[in-house]
Fold this protein.
Amino acid sequence: MEARVRHRNASEKRFRAAGFFAVSLSALFLALLLANMAWKGLGGFTRTEAELTINFPKSDLLIDPAALHGGQAQEVIGSADLDGAVSQAAAAQYGPDAAELFGAAGSRALGRALIKDPTLLQRSATLWLPVGSKADVAYKSEGDPRYDHLMAKIDAQDKVRLRFNSDFLTASDATDPSAVGIWGALKGTFLTIMVTMLLAFPIGVLSALYLEEFAPRNRWTDLIEVSINNLAAVPSIIFGLLGLAVFLNFMHLPRSAPLVGGLTLALMTMPVIVIAGRNAITSVPPSIRDAALGVGASKMQVVFHHVLPLALPGILTGTIIGMARALGETAPLLMIGMRAFIAAPPSGITDPSSVLPVQIFLWSDEVDRGFVEKTSAAIIVLLIFMLLMNGLAIYLRNRFEQRW
């Protein structure tokens, strides 16, 4: 007997050690992932700025300061040769090699400065402008040798600095890594997830209630149950093909729109919510139903006044799983055309848009080294967005949780 007790105790210790090792290994991999993303991506939230003196009266800019006071200011700035003025001033101040020092982000910052203070056009002004992608990489790490030498020379003059890149959070996609932002993709992600939630959650919950509480037990309901279980395991790209065939080719809805993306992801998420909802409804004790029926409640009152509130925390758990899966999907959205270059954020669910997973996928395929840290930074934003949504869902689940 003592030998058996020692054997059981040894087995328990081995099991606890194996469990602790598994948890530790998972935590280690998670820490490595977060550390790698932070090391590569935090630089995407900063940008390198260089000091540039521009003599506007002697430059080639032909802009009337009065035109920058009206509603046409953006159009006037867009038609002006800001790139030429910046290149000319950079070459004059830092040498011919600095003609391409400032990229699209520098011209955009100069345009904002002129709109804010049109009197700059009447004098010489010193501005801090973000440098181009190659110069930014050269200042933060080793990049192009030509730009390494140039940035070292500018740094020796104390005319370069690192600042928080607010444009990364407020701008949309661009061809120049120094000018890209994730606001357009972030807004498209939010609109797409909202469409998915508004469709998948009520339909999934009502389907679960009907199948569990009202549907008769026959071959048709058995076929529906088997179909739902199979749909939950179908690869996501199949739903993308379905969305392409139904929503685009048949219904002719706008391509690359959050509406179509939300409809496609709702089809993919709905089976998960139905299965989780049925399990949560089944877990409600039968005594709750019997007590409600015993005091004269109707079947509808039993379901919506007693069963559904008690099952709601479990339903929200399934919804969290489904929404987290939908938030990270790329393949079905690529099939419906959400990989297009979108330079402006969407204003509604029918406007062309991109989403964060697709934006990350597109940036990761770029050859410019400036997109590397932007890709990692976008991944960090996606993780934060997912944590915020999951945190809200967990709060709602705990808020509606009841004990019996």
